[in-house]
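Please check both lines for our workbook:

___
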Amino acid sequence: MSRSGIAVADESLKAFNDLKLGKKYKFVLYALNDAKTEIIVKETSKDESYDTFLEKLPENDCLYAVYDFEYEISGTEGKRSKIIFFTWAPDTAPVRSKMVYASSKDALRRALNGVSSDIQGTDFSEVAYETVLEKVSRGAGSH
């Protein structure tokens, strides 16, 4: 339970584990249910295109997402993959929606073990591929 009293649905954890362990999905979108009592799976996708993911982010509403982000590191390291947690709260979303999503984020975020980066997006420039790539690869050489 979060401070806002919102619970994380079992299916939300299952979808995350299917992405993380089973590699079943490329990304999972999460939303609050209509009653605003639970965080549920809005959609799952196997689509490899990052653009497809971006197209799913609503222009005027909030959501959470988990994305299995693959990228190449120059040199000998080759392909890496990191699970990224997105909080999408565009400036154009209703204030009430932004408040509820902000206050219930911790419940979902704490439940998802194995996320390596958090991205907060208020407009599309903040979730652009290059922006995310820079953020995840910045810490890549230091492990």
In short: Strands lie at 7-8, 27-32, 38-45, 63-73, 78-88, 117-121. The chain has a mean pLDDT of 92. Residues 95-111 form the longest helix (17 residues). DSSP finds four helices and six strands in the chain.
